[in-house]
Amino acid sequence: MGRxxxxxxxxxxxxxxxxxxxxxxxxxxxxxxKLPLILLGAAIYSLSLNLLLRPLHLYSxxxxxxxxxxxxxxNRAGVSFGGVQFSGILYYLMNIPALILxxxxxxxxxxxxxxxxxxxxxxxxxxxxxxxQPILDDMLTNVILAGVLCGIGIGLILYEGACDGxxxxxxxxxxxxxxxxxxxxxxxxxxxxxxxIMLFLFDIPTTIYSFIFSLFSSIATDRxxxxxxxxxVMVITKLEDTKPMxxxxxxxxxxxxxEMHGSGTFTGEDVRVFxxxxxxYETARLRSIVQSHDPNxxxxxxxxxxxxxxxxxxxx
Length: 316
What we know:
The protein is an alpha+beta fold. The protein has two domains: about 35-225, no CATH class; about 230-305, Alpha-Beta Plaits. Helices cover about 65% and strands about 10% of the residues.
């Protein structure tokens, strides 16, 4: 009991020290280095949407889909925006309530990067011209390619600790709060509602192809967004004092560890076995921490495990 309390006290002190460090200039510099990749993700998403999907007169999912549908209805009513894609501006305005909610629930540095991503997407969607004819001849190929590329763009934004806004942001709030589902799955469920509405406004092929786009986009997002993939890591070490390693893992990754004692069958040497559950996104950091304390540690990683119970999905 005494050792457990000692480790816990050290973890709390280290977390406080790191929290102060995170508010410093070094943390701000590290976060700023992520902005170019966030901008790249926004560019991939915006180019794919305007160059591949929009010429087909199809619609994206989530809030962007609602913005596109609203713009289409305004165009039908004879409202003109002078060549500017109004859906990009409308998308930005529709994200404001979600951002206000997220500011209260999530890390502020995440929200700041998200505002940057949403602003980049809104500007790019407004200025990138939409071709009059599809780039590829086959419609299904256009739809699948647009979905995959848009998903890659969104996944890259998420990977760098930001969000493209809309239902992705709301999905992250739900997953972070409940620990259930994935961002992509929540997006698919939401889009079922959107495309149900579209059935009453547009023809069936338009709705079906739009849903196919959304499906491939969600799948690609989940594949890139490694925080959605759970991993079980087993660490076997012969260190006599593992307390410094335990403190660093728990304070830097905010993950618990289960310790077991064993012995080598052949050598008879005592070993300590730690079982840690993390996201795939965190495995490289965990491996680096362990090897800095014990370069000879035996590390086994199992990816794609299902975890029930209290396991925090850290998406930001």
